[in-house]
User: Fold this.
Amino acid sequence: MLKKMTLAVLGLTVSSMAAAGMYSEPPAPTCTPGDVTVPCEAKQWDLGIQALYLQPIYSASRGYRLGGTLLSNLSSTYYNDVDPDWGWGYRLEGSYHFRTGNDITATWMHYDADSKLGPYFGPFYVATTQTFIPGTYRQYVDNRFDQVNVVMGQHVDFGLLKNARFYGGLQYADIQVDATNYYNLPLTVQAATFGIRTFNNTDFNGVGPVIGIDYSYDLSPSFSITANTAGSILYGTSRINRADVYNVGLVALNDYGSKHSIVPSFEAKLGANYAYPVAQGVLNIQGGYHVLNYFNALQDVEFQCCTRVVAYSDFGLYGPYLGLKWVG
Assistant:
């Protein structure tokens, strides 16, 4: 009889504990160092600015200019690599941090730099007579680039020294490359035209999803190595406008085209971060190297004998950056 009563009491106890577990509060997120954890709940803001010193880079026909050719044999041609000038840009950043490592972040990257290139050598195609004449020219290029990201992120700690931030959201990009060629042609042509210049302008603007990872490895409580990689696929419009203008007021050639495009992009950074505690938070000093590339974002017109063929070119930027970010 005693044995049966003991078993009954144990059964009731186990049932009560199980029922209590079913209706109890779930455990709070951990914030102790371990294999994979998230930060403790906090509400913070951060503001950052970076100075960028970048050089543009192109592909396809925009990456080459004629270096020389034999007019008697147009197949014998050599090309010079287009080497645009370096220029300054900036990147602004603002974030709101909430819950256990979540954030909403907006960034704006802006770049606007001019290049004076040449002289380049080679024949000039005369549209009115469909012939080539020898000449040289200098090229002036204006590169303008804007990129805006609005993303949500999640901070994750991998042990005591490693942490990462995974993010995703929307990206908008506006790329404009305006090129003007000023030709030095034979005197007979100069006398008839009072000079010739060629416009070759192209642009792309689009929007689409972006995902990325910010990674850091702490070498000390204040100093860390940082890396970032991101990718996007944008849908937008790509345009091309090319015109030959004689200074007597004649537009001898005018090509224009516009099309919808899907443009993927890739972005990467490698750098370092120094965290300096201040009265109202932490001031981070950042520096490193930054590269990005938009694939087939731009258009160009290639002259092949007496036809004009539209080609595509990447647009890239690369160079060092230095900045400050306050978190508090």
Summary: The longest helix spans residues 2-23. The chain has one domain: 36-327.
